[in-house]
Design brief:
The complex is a heterodimer of chains A (68) and B (472).
Chain A (H helix, E strand, L loop, with lengths): L1 H12 L3 H6 L1 H16 L29
Helix pairs in contact in A: 1-3
Chain B lengths: L8 H9 L5 H19 L2 E4 L1 H16 L11 E5 L26 H8 L3 E6 L33 H8 L5 E6 L5 H7 L2 E4 L19 E6 L2 H11 L17 H10 L6 E4 L2 H6 L4 H16 L3 E4 L5 H26 L6 H7 L7 H21 L5 E5 L11 H7 L6 H6 L3 E8 L10 E8 L4 H15 L9
Parallel strand pairs in B: 2-3, 2-4, 7-8, 7-9
Antiparallel strand pairs in B: 1-3, 4-6, 5-6, 5-10, 9-11, 10-11
């Protein structure tokens, strides 16, 4: 009950109360699933490890076998 | 004699150009086939029959008038229903988009029309390319033509099933965590997620901006190459579009057929499907058999190792959920009841990912991309599993929930590398379950889809799985 009350409060803060009411258990399951997901992500440690746009490819493609 | 419904796009285009086949007669045949079979397959959301037939007559007239013809002149195609086509609804398979009529063609639609191809219809998807298969939406989920009790894979479910069923030779899907390659594997067709930036996403409903790709789905490798050729290229109206030359993909296919793959180096990411996740033995056996074929063709096969599949998939998932929630927050707040229950369930975790976790995922991304690049320093292509399991019943909710995590596709959305799902055979028939298709994933260097096509076409020619069709 306590958990559901907390989840309802969080839903209200997120503007998701109507969604919460469609499935309180779904809401709590999503919180747990997210925790598991982020806990299993590597934590970058290098100070200058920046995000990069995936399109900024630096590798040369001049050695492709189909171009030989 | 091949059933006319299963003629390849390139074969059709040649026959129409040479006036051996009328585009209108072919269109009539396919529309009749859709009318007969689609009530059990549910692949089509909006059939564009009248316009398609009118355009087919115009295509025939253009041939007889001696007009300049595009490479896919008169060839029918379908679009996953999150891709805009002017004047037609884009439903995203959702009540949220009720009444949404596209005012303009997406870039890929425009390119296909310019090539002479004819739009047959808009095809089923999982809601917003993410939920599903859902039974609480205005349209039922598509079913697998190999056995209509089975799941098609998703989210490009209608595209995969319609191609496999012989409703059209060409379709487009989209792929954010594997949604072209999953239905390609489970429906026994060829599906390509090209390099991120290769194909414009303008006019396509977003799921996760930095992971979304539009991809060709076909029955043969050469059709796939021809379709990618048409839809590729720089688009200044897509912020992620890459200004990179597009090579001649059909030449790469031809090289695979005529010169083979002798001496090419193929790295096998075996731990993805034998250790990180243990694939169904039928999948593993089919992959091993396909590696024997590739070795017999002269390729050098070596096992390679990288991060665990779960690590790649977790990072992909954090980015996907964060970006998807940003797209859907407004509707989840204001109209939650208009989503299917499964879509709500899948989108909701994005509400709880903190900014720091999203940024950490983005910081991890270039490292993982570099890891795959390093593997490709010593290999021309990589191969691994696509789906870990053969098709399973569509109403088995536990199997559906398992199937998305049990795949090796998300790593290449994360890293942007091109990846293709290739048919590699079938399960054995079992009691009342007929043969079901199995797939292999082939991955290449950034913007080197050509090497993937070369390997895939050599394999296809050696095995001919693409000439086996579903019942009907």
């Amino acid at each position: 009950m306590r958990h559901t009350d907390d989840a309802r409060k969080l839903a209200n803060q997120l503007g998701l109360l109507r969604l919460f009411e469609l499935g309180p258990s779904q809401f709590e399951a999503a919180i747990k699933a997210t925790q598991a997901l982020v806990e299993n992500q590597p934590s970058p440690t290098a100070l200058h490890q920046e995000p990069a746009h995936v399109c900024d490819f630096t590798r040369q493609t001049s050695n492709l076998i189909h171009q030989q | 004699m091949t059933n006319p419904a299963f003629r390849s796009a390139l074969d059709l285009a040649a026959a129409i150009r040479e006036q051996r086949l009328s585009a209108a007669n072919n269109m009539k045949h396919l529309l009749a086939r859709i009318e007969t079979l689609d009530p059990t397959l549910n692949t089509v959301v909006t059939l564009n029959a009248e316009a398609a037939l009118t355009e087919a007559h115009k295509a025939d007239k253009a041939v007889s008038d001696g007009d300049a013809l595009g490479p896919l002149h008169g060839v029918p195609f379908g679009l996953k229903d999150i891709i805009d086509a002017a004047g037609l609804p884009t439903t995203a398979h959702s009540k949220i988009f009720a009444g949404n009529i596209a005012t303009e063609d997406s870039t890929v639609t425009a390119k296909l029309k310019q090539s002479g191809a004819l739009l047959v219809g808009k095809l089923a998807t999982h809601e917003f390319a993410f939920g599903g298969p859902s039974f609480d939406l205005p349209w039922p989920p598509a079913r697998n033509p190999w056995d209509t009790r089975m799941f098609t894979g998703g989210s490009s479910s209608g595209s995969g099933a319609a191609i496999a069923a012989g409703f059209m030779p060409l379709a487009l899907g989209t792929d954010t965590g594997g949604s072209v390659r999953n239905p390609a594997s489970l429906c026994g067709i060829v599906g390509m997620k090209a390099t991120y930036g290769r194909v414009s996403r303008r006019g396509v409903v977003p799921l996760a901006f930095s992971l979304d790709h539009v991809g060709p789905m076909t029955r043969t490798v050469s059709d796939n190459a021809a379709l990618l050729q048409v839809i590729s290229g720089y688009d200044p109206r897509d912020r992620a579009s890459a200004q990179v030359p597009v090579p001649d993909y059909l030449s790469a296919v031809e090289r695979g057929r005529t010169q083979g793959i002798k001496g090419m180096r193929i790295g096998v990411i075996r731990h993805f499907f034998e250790k990180d996740m243990v694939a169904d033995s039928r999948v593993v056996n089919a992959i091993n058999a396909s590696l024997h074929v590739l070795a017999d063709l002269g390729a050098h096969i070596t096992d390679v190792e990288t991060q665990s599949l779960q690590t790649f998939s977790n990072v992909n998932r954090i980015i996907l959920l964060s970006e998807a929630y940003a797209v859907h927050q407004h509707w989840l707040q204001s109209r939650p009841q208009d989503y299917a229950a499964m879509t709500r369930e899948k989108l909701l975790p994005g509400a709880f990912i903190r900014a720091v976790d999203y940024v950490q995922a983005l910081r991890n991304r270039p490292l993982f991309t570099a890891e795959i690049d390093t593997l490709l320093d010593d290999a021309d292509v990589l191969v691994t599993a696509s789906s870990m399991d053969p098709p399973f019943p569509i109403d088995d909710s536990e199997a559906v929930a398992r199937c998305y995590p049990r795949s090796a596709r998300p790593p290449f959305n994360l890293t942007g590398h091109p990846a293709l799902s290739l048919p590699i055979g079938f399960t054995e028939p079992d009691d009342d379950v007929p043969v079901l298709p199995l797939g292999l994933q082939v991955i290449g260097r950034h913007f080197d889809e050509a090497s993937i096509y070369r390997v895939a076409s050599a394999y296809e020619q050696a095995t001919n799985w693409s000439e086996v069709y579903p019942p009907h």
